[in-house]
């Protein structure tokens, strides 16, 4: 969600201001031992047809002006996690209507194919 992203960005700016992090090293994936995520959104474009809020997903994936067709996929530049080498644990909500488990499973599969160790836990949340 946009507010969640802003919270992370504010925290990053704060640790930079404190001198605890360097902006030039924030994208260095080998700095982390592992990562964990709980029901993360990882493919907005795919979720247009599977979520309970398709209008919001469409606007997020394709912009407020929209696209002429659903076949135009948005850029995947934000998926820097695909550069990760650190093990990742994912908790997927099996009954979550807002973030369908199928998108997380596809993402985990893609990471595994890149050689990233991934553990997926699915719970009826």
Automatic annotation (TrEMBL):
Tagged with keyword Hydrolase: yes
Return the Pfam families for the record.
Peptidase_S9 (PF00326)
Domain of life, per UniProt, equals Eukaryota
Signal peptide positions are: none
Which keywords annotate this record?
Answer: Hydrolase
InterPro entries referenced in this protein's UniProt entry, alphabetically: AB_hydrolase_fold, Peptidase_S9_cat
Q: Name one GO molecular function term.
A: serine-type endopeptidase activity
Please report the stretch or stretches of sequence annotated as the Peptidase S9 prolyl oligopeptidase catalytic domain: 28-121
Q: What is this protein called?
A: Acylaminoacyl-peptidase-related protein
Annotated source species? Prunus dulcis
* Organism taxonomic ancestry: Eukaryota, Viridiplantae, Streptophyta, Embryophyta, Tracheophyta
